[in-house]
Fold each of these.
Amino acid sequence: MASLKFATIGTGFWSRFQLAGWKELEGAECVALYNRTLSKAEALGQEFGIEAVYDDLEKLFAEQELDFVDIVAGESVHERFTLMAVERGIPVICQKPLAPDYETAASMARACQEANVGLYVHENWRWQRPLRELKRIMDENRIGRIWRARVIYCCSFPVFENQPFLKELERFILMDIGTHVLDTTRFLFGEATSLHCHTHRVNQGIKGEDAATVMLKMASGATVSVEMSYASRLLDERFPQTYVVIEGEDASIELRKDGWIHVTTREGVSSTQATPEYYPWADARYDCVHASIVDCNRNLLGALQGGAPAETTAEDNLKTLDLVRRCYESAASDSTIVIE
């Protein structure tokens, strides 16, 4: 099968890891780069051996034959860039969050659906090796009916040093990491029927919230607490790992630091470690996240090639964005929001 040719739109912090992730797979070739600052596109093109670089997206589309585009730019331009591709019948992979708000994301999804053009979200968090292994163990049904769980992403990592623009966001942690963690919660436990959210701005040097706690009632009947924070100094914090504690009628499962998964039953504890794949291009501080880029890309590429459906379509991601917007509604009104 011939490789699918694509363009990467946006050459900021995450783009080099996204491109490196694609290079780990057969079947996809980046043939062009776009950035509004041409020198940034040129620098990344030189690093990855990509000669076609642009600061004019119309010109890129006119000159390149593309099978899809990979948008790795800020969410404020996701709609415009996506619609430019859709007008030309080109499928789109878009970074999360799909859009700055739910309504815009829903409009993008409708436009792609009406044009019969695929729109996929690069939602790689759920593809982390420890979380996939946790889900596999859950599906073995070794702990009985799940009645309570906690999903915990809390650390003091200086995220603003690499991405200073995050300081200026009026809505920060729920839009930035919440889209990841709430999507993972859906992946593990299904859909929610109600939620109650509290937010905090601990760091007074930023505009948005840097901590949030969400209590979810799931359709299964389980209660799931989701905790996220960039303001937590904790004994076992390990950016950017997610910890999970699941309680069932017969036993519990815990995903702890460094991918250790413990299943505790009446008979005792069994433990296994799920470690991410090592890639020399990955930043050691982001190891499990960068490794998951490859697995997410593999899933999306398979869908683009006509194989199994992608997990993180726009339609699926809208359910996550709906949770995010309802979290903000709940936090603003200090009320429980029922999800129809």
Amino acid sequence: MRDTKALWMVAISLLLGLVAVAVGGKWLMERSTVDISGVIVATRDIDVGTRLTPELLESKDWLRTSTPQGAFQDVKLLDSRVVRVNLTRGEPLLEAKLAPVGTTGGLSGVIAEGKRAITVRVNDVVGVAGFALPGNKVDILINTKDEKEKGISKIVLEQILVLAVAQDVGRDETKPKVVTAVTLEVTPEEAEKLDLARSIGTLSLVLRNQVDTGSGTTEGVRIKDLLKLSTKLATSPAYHRAPPIPQTVEFIRGSQRAREISRERDY
């Protein structure tokens, strides 16, 4: 009797185990079917302005719930499209990162709608010692003379995107590139302002923090502003320190007595 009862318990346990395995397998299959999808990603780093080819792309499994908006699932839809930003290996291809359909490769394909590209001649100092790379944003500083023939230095353009340095639109941040020309993305009005600025003075690039969107608008600095003492320094107690008080020192050398006047050290 006891043996029969034990056999029934073993049989029921095996049956419940088989049911659990079947239900679990079905649940896993349903999840993989519903939540996983293929997303087209870059097989290597891709520079801005590059025309896409099949060997640059591959399909990768991606959770459907976290699939980026605008992602592609068919590699054929990306044939000959041009990227307008730098892509890293494994990064999903998105419509927002591509130039319009029919755009040819190169710099012209990455200029935003309504913008223009203008090239400015620079040297190793003006070009921020080669650290202004494609994708960075810079301010434009001019050194010239005002209407009173007084020297002035002022920021004339802010948050200007660097499209290319020399003829290179790729971004290699491992080392600076000292070049002779920088291509900037500007509006038509900014292009006119920049062209006038470089004809009346010396231009310099001022590198910005990528996430800094604040305005740096100032009145400019003139020679008189540069040379005058700051208000903070002029009112500082240390600046108006009283002169040291003379002290008399008496010392004896042998049988002779002498006196010496010394000044307190000014700390």
Amino acid sequence: MLNKQILVVDDEPRIREVVQYALEREGCRVYLAATALEAEATLQREAIDLVVLDVMLPDASGLDLCRRLRAARATPVLFLSARGEEIDRVIGLEVGADDYLGKPFGTRELVARIKAVLRRAAPATPEVPAQGANALELGALVLDAERHEVRAGGRVVPLTHTEFLILRALMQRPGVVFERGQLMRAAREDDTHITERTIDTHIRRIRAKLRECAVEPIVTVHGVGYKLDREACSAA
């Protein structure tokens, strides 16, 4: 059972009804919104654990709502949209979504993806616990596999599980160039929907999070892929 508070934002009553029924069977408390305005009011009022969000809303773009949400909090977002082409999924990930499911959809797959997103979500922890035995340390960058935690310059970096797996692969072999296909296979431990094209999006998000800690170790090797620069693994 999930036992989470989930906000479903969709202007189609039937979609809201189907998703609500599926999630309530998992023990969730479901909040419904037909517009971006209603969604933002609920987000201000309730402690929402995850948002299921349509891209096309009557009063705003779901993409814009996701951007605003990402700027204010770390609540996971799963897009549920009739716009299901690869470019739509890439754009959805680029604005900060954790997953993207096209319509029509099966409720079992939707619930499974929500569980996966919630499982991958890495909560920000203000405390810096002792380093576990199974850890990779390169300068100011530390990846602790036992605690599923990355720290840069002593600060916890809130990576998703997919981002964690990609960074782990790079840190295990610093200086070695990884093709996108290799990183895709490394990340498929928990995300079977990842593609070579979405690797670039995940890399951009990892870079942005590390940059906030003044660490920029990932290097693009044009025409090939990415590598991790050992010398750059130091906080300014």
Amino acid sequence: MRIALTGATGFTGRFVSSALEKVGATPVALRVDLRDRDAVDRAVRSIDFDRVIHLAGRAFVDAADWRSFYAVNHIGTLNLLDAIAKSKPGARCIIASSAQVYGPRAEGLIPEESSTNPANHYAISKLAMEQGANLWREKLEIVIARPFNYTGVGQNTQYLVPKIVDHFRRRAEIIELGNTWVRRDFGDVRSVAEAYAALSIATAVPSLVNIATGTVYSIGQILDILTAISGHHIKIQVNQAFVRSGDVEVLGGDASLLRQALPNWCPPPIRDTLQWMFCAPVSE
């Protein structure tokens, strides 16, 4: 099976490519400016594929250029679906959304049927993307995936866990953080990639599914694990700029539906992920 893959060279995409190969599928990179409708049509027509995993998009939520979230994540995705429907009607399209669509008031382990309340441009663009994609359900098999936080080797240090790991690797004396008591669902990019690959080739999959571990850890626990791994003690300094008022204590994903669809999927414990990140060569 040939799986067209957008975002193939990104942080997640390179792991998804590897995961597809491991399950016997062939990843086919689809590189195009999603904002250019004609270019998207040409790119889709130029490749041979059976199904699609759409990962490409604007991701960092604090980016100042908010218009690009809508141009790429929303309109760009609709350009892609329109092109696929014309070139490969009926194809399964797995679209990477985000758990951020649930919003800041969500708490606990969130199931897919929970209400949505996006609170930033990135999350709003993702929910708009989901709603727009629904208009193609009669022409394509649309699968919306909502991944929760995940991390791994190669993720930029602007994100929280890589930032913490980087401080321990450099044996920094101090790290500035916000609320360390909050507990979150931290997945491993390798198992997230395995989930995408498995969803792309499975016989039947849900039309909307969380990609989550269903287990939560506090930032304090992550710090403790890295202290044990590194043998280095770091001083925590609270920076009020990083403190989110009204932060919920527990926020994770209910992974029941994903585990029903993929009974053999098994994410690693967070310690294994942190060990991998801490010990990885600098070039990775």
